[in-house]
Design brief:
mainly alpha; 0% strand
Amino acid sequence: MSSVVQGLTKSLAMTVLSEIGDKTFFAAAILAMRHPRRLVLTGCLSALIVMTLLSALVGWAAPNLISRKWTHHVTTLLFFGFGLWSLWEGFTGEGEAEELAEVEAKLNADWKADTGTTKKRSKDDDDDDLKKQKRPFLSQFFSPILLKAFSITFFGEWGDKSQLATIGLAADENPFGVILGGIIGQALCTTAAVLGGRSLASQISEKIVALSGGVLFIVFGIQSFLSTVES
């Protein structure tokens, strides 16, 4: 039970500090300003949960393919590497406000493209809306907005620092605890992004988040290193 709690707390802390101010956080905030929040939250959160499950599965399988000793060493190096990376970003100020502007510019381009196509449509849109209201729940659930939120979030997280860190945690800690902590952390961050919108996203200090995340990764790396020395 203690291993589950340890995996949960580490995963929760790592996820919250990695996801706040992340590209997918900004994307969820901006999408929620333009589309129904329920669909944006469902799409973004579903993508993050799927990504967490896949990452934890890879981390769980790694010690079965490679010796646990080597996976532990790799995980330790990952923690130190991510810690130094985050600290560097925090001290140099790289990405401050630029990430929000980058995501907003991309979504603005998509938004203009979508609105450009809708202008070409006639009053048939009203008929389409009535038809949508009569469709079964599942047909409305898997809407283009939900799928867009899912795809933007999923591919935005692919190969991201938080994904690799989740793989490392799952290889070193209890996978169930890592999954649970990751999902809780993703739910908290995504809900905050969707409800808070751009105003919340613009007020977040990426420098403080990066420095806090860097310290956390370094602490994880030290703990992992000490457990190697003790064993």
